[in-house]
Specification:
Layout (H helix, E strand, L loop, with lengths): L4 H25 L6 E2 L2 E2 L5 E2 L11 H21 L5 H4 L37 E2 L23 E5 L3 E2 L3 E2 L5 E3 L2 E8 L4 E5 L4 E4 L8 E4 L11 E2 H5 L6 E2 L3
Parallel strand pairs: 8-14
Antiparallel strand pairs: 1-2, 3-7, 4-5, 5-9, 6-9, 7-8, 9-10, 11-12, 11-13
Length: 242
């Protein structure tokens, strides 16, 4: 007995396969949306945000500047009983005090162009002049910290690396490396590893906004968290080690 329905079923199966093939071809050939991050298209294997950051530079360059700057600031403080204003510190036309003259080269490192915050063509800030800002508790930073206290005077973030890779779904992978170079009021110069920097909520609430700073200075709130501790709490982005 001949099954007359078999050819019909074969035709249906063939038609379905042709339709599926058409859908697959359409999917593969349909132009995918272009995902842009910081002006750059994100490829399928992820966008390396700062490919030049593999060069970590040499923090000794910032340390050399900080030693000279601290010597000049202390001499100014000894003569005038206060710290120099930013305008006074950055006035390179005349000596800051006595015969101590600072130059523009004392306030920048040759490594800044490898940093994550470097913007080509912009007036990039090399050093952070923390001494002109209030302490974390809002009180002025004194020229002469009390016994047992010390303040952050300057910082350099040219040697911090996020090593961020952004993917098309919006998440990122980070491999935090490097150090922040810190000049303390007592003349100590410290290299603080990326994950050992601290952060605290400026408003005191759990939602922030958050301030990134350095442990050990006067005026810090009781509740702080290291950057490393905060990173492991991120459930969307991923911390990796390359």
């Amino acid at each position: 007995m001949i099954n007359k329905g078999l050819p019909a079923r074969k035709a249906i199966v063939l038609t379905v396969l042709v339709l599926l093939l058409g859908v697959l071809v359409g999917y593969l050939t349909f132009p995918r949306p272009v995902i842009i991050f910081m002006g750059q298209p994100v490829p399928d294997n992820g966008l390396v945000v700062n490919p030049r950051g593999k060069n970590l530079g040499d923090p000794a360059n910032a340390e050399r500047d900080f030693r000279k700057i601290h010597m000049a600031m202390v001499a100014f403080r000894a003569k005038y009983g206060r710290l120099p204003s930013l305008d006074e510190l950055l006035n390179f036309k005349t000596p800051l005090v006595g015969n101590l003259r600072l130059s523009e080269d004392d306030f920048k490192t040759p490594d800044f162009e490898f940093g994550d915050r470097f913007v080509p063509g912009a007036n990039n800030l090399h050093y952070g002049f923390t001494y002109v800002t209030p302490r974390p508790n809002g009180q002025p930073r004194p020229a002469f910290p009390a016994t047992g206290e010390r303040d952050v005077w300057m910082v350099c973030g040219d040697y911090l690396r996020d090593n961020q890779v952004v993917f098309r779904d919006g998440h990122s992978e980070f491999d935090p490396q490097g150090v922040e170079v810190v000049l303390w009021s007592d003349g100590t110069i410290e290299r603080v590893p990326y994950k050992e920097r601290i952060m605290y909520s400026e408003s005191g609430s759990a939602g922030g906004p958050f301030v990134y700073t350095i442990a050990g200075q006067a005026g810090l709130p009781k509740k702080t968290i290291t950057v490393g501790e905060e990173l492991v709490k991120d459930r969307f982005n991923k911390i990796v080690s390359r």
